[in-house]
Design goal:
39% of the residues lie in helices and 11% in strands. The chain is of the alpha+beta class. α7 crosses α10.
């Protein structure tokens, strides 16, 4: 797969020198180093929706022709930070979802989905638009992307790409100290809205399967077993803290035999203690 405007190693070095030159290697409140313990293949990416341009991040190359989800993947693969502005070209619906552009009438009427084979009729395509989250028009002029290790800002949303085993660890870190439910909500198109904007607007952690979404599937951005997790800013401290505190790889996940052995031991122990308490009472 070839991306126009794909950054090189020189681009990454240029971004680092930019920060050094202007003495803006500032630190964030959260310690993202704990994410290394999960063994992710691609770096987590912090995303921020900004009204003003950043002072410490270079812009995406103006000649780049990428969709919003491709920009996210580019930040991961190239392992470098950049920002998108209203002046940049975005090749899908990203700038519409970000409130930077209006949807053209033929698209808003639902004409595209049936042509793609995603929907039977335009009415089905048009129907789901009412549920797709969008940012208010005019509030976001810039979108910042940065690998977690290079963050110089507090992200609005932290995006983690993981296989099911790794995703289980991240999601368990959310519920470990809170009891919060796992939630996944998405539509067959406009997946970036549910990964980035939905967590930001609702404050809920959301995970999606890119293989189930038309754009990421067609662009072959991730392996079929990948899950993308969008973590809003209010959940980032809790998840990072719990990743430090809890056991990442559980005993009962090593094998089927280990699962039954551990579970059986726990049940027998609790039953024995309950019986002893009942006798004492």
């Amino acid at each position: 797969m070839v991306f126009i405007g794909w950054p090189t190693h020189t681009d990454y070095l240029r971004a680092i020198l930019f920060k050094i030159k202007y003495n803006i290697m500032n630190e964030t409140r959260n310690n993202y180093a704990v994410l290394k313990k999960i063994g992710l293949d691609l770096p987590p990416i912090g995303v921020k929706f900004s009204f003003f341009p950043p002072e410490d991040i270079p812009p995406l190359e103006m000649e780049a022709r990428l969709s919003l989800c491709e920009m996210l993947k580019m930040a991961q693969t190239a392992n470098r930070c950049f920002y998108l502005s209203k002046k940049h070209t975005e090749t899908c619906v990203g700038k519409i979802l970000l409130g930077m552009e209006d949807m053209v009438p033929f698209a808003e009427s639902g004409q595209i989905g049936p042509r793609l084979g995603v929907f039977e009729e335009a009415r089905c395509n048009q129907h789901f638009y009412q549920f797709v989250p969008k940012l208010d028009k005019g509030n976001t002029n810039f979108v910042l992307f940065s690998p977690a290790e290079q963050l110089t800002f507090e992200p609005d949303v932290l995006v983690i790409s993981a296989n099911p085993e790794q995703a289980e660890i991240v999601m368990r870190a959310m519920t470990y100290s809170t009891g919060e439910l796992y939630k996944s909500v998405c539509t067959p198109v406009m997946g970036c809205a549910w990964l980035l904007i939905h967590p930001y607007k609702t404050g809920e952690v959301n995970f999606i399967v890119p293989a189930l979404i038309h754009g990421p599937h067609g662009r072959q951005l991730y392996s079929p077993d990948t899950l993308l997790i969008g973590i809003p800013y209010r959940w980032i401290p809790t998840i990072l803290t719990n990743l430090e505190r809890m056991k990442l790889r559980l005993e009962g996940h090593k094998s089927k035999a280990d699962y039954y052995a551990e579970f059986g031991t726990i049940l027998a122990d609790l039953a024995g203690k309950s019986k002893a308490l009942e006798d004492a009472l």
